[in-house]
Design brief:
single chain, about 250 residues, alpha/beta, 10 strands
């Protein structure tokens, strides 16, 4: 019997989501989850996608703690989906504030405030590269270096939707995730990866978390398609951290 322990990637209306912290918690309880993480977008996201500022996380923490008292049957984690904003892997959350979060997710998003001109050019190039394969391939090494630099600089728990809208060296990133004990996400909101991609990451030593990337409460805990995808890729289910198989849990 397969049971999901947690959904570690959910958003609320504090960033780009549509529901409240409590809405997501109740949805997780209805799905039988033991834990949920509230991981709103970091402040560097453009067009109102990210939190307004870092103080927003203080408000989310207050709401989360109230829900923890109200719903003791589920563990509620304060997290963030931080943005990689420089070629050197800088995140949009100051390193001295990372301890305030229970779980840290990070990803390479394109529509963010870059840390410098070089990164702005990289993000612009990746945007154009979505429609121009030659440029997309040319940026592969730079994207990979930025992601690996971030993995090495910060205590990132989960690398979100690796390779979404950007070309990366999957083997190199998978190996870096193995070395830094960072889980690679199998994201059920996007279909950008192939079974071959997942198998390459697994063979490089990566292990995985399935995340819903829910932007509305009804998608919280929507994880089962990630299991089917792993099966197609030939990746053993024991390599998925938030999946409970019978009485055994992989850690």
């Amino acid at each position: 019997m397969l049971t999901f322990l947690a959904d570690y990637h959910t958003h609320t209306y504090h960033s780009h989501g549509k529901g409240s912290v409590e809405d997501n918690v109740k949805a997780a309880l209805n799905k039988g989850l033991e834990a949920i993480a509230i991981t709103d977008h970091g402040p560097a996201n453009l067009f109102g996608v990210g939190v307004k500022n870092l103080k927003t996380f203080e408000l989310i923490r207050q709401e989360l703690e109230a829900c923890q008292v109200k719903y003791p049957a589920i563990r509620i984690l304060l997290g963030v989906e931080a943005n990689i904003i420089s070629l050197g892997g800088t995140l949009d959350i100051p390193i001295d504030q990372l301890h305030e979060f229970d779980i840290i997710l990070a990803g390479l998003h394109l529509l963010v405030y870059p840390d410098n001109l070089a990164t702005a050019l990289l993000f612009s190039g990746n945007l154009v590269g979505r429609f121009w394969a030659r440029l997309k391939n040319a940026l592969r090494e730079i994207n990979t270096q930025a992601v690996i630099a971030s993995l090495n600089r910060y205590p990132i728990d989960i690398l979100t939707h690796p390779g979404l809208h950007v070309n990366i060296d999957t083997e190199a990133v998978g190996s870096a995730c193995c070395q830094t004990h960072t889980y690679m996400e199998i994201n059920t909101s996007h279909d950008h990866i192939t079974p071959e991609y997942l198998k390459i990451a697994y063979d490089a030593g990566a292990r995985f978390v399935i995340g819903s990337d829910a932007h509305s409460p009804h998608r919280v805990g929507d994880l089962i398609s990630g299991v089917e995808f792993a099966k197609t890729a030939g990746v053993p289910l024991t390599a998925i951290h938030n999946l409970k198989i019978g009485q055994e849990t992989w850690t």
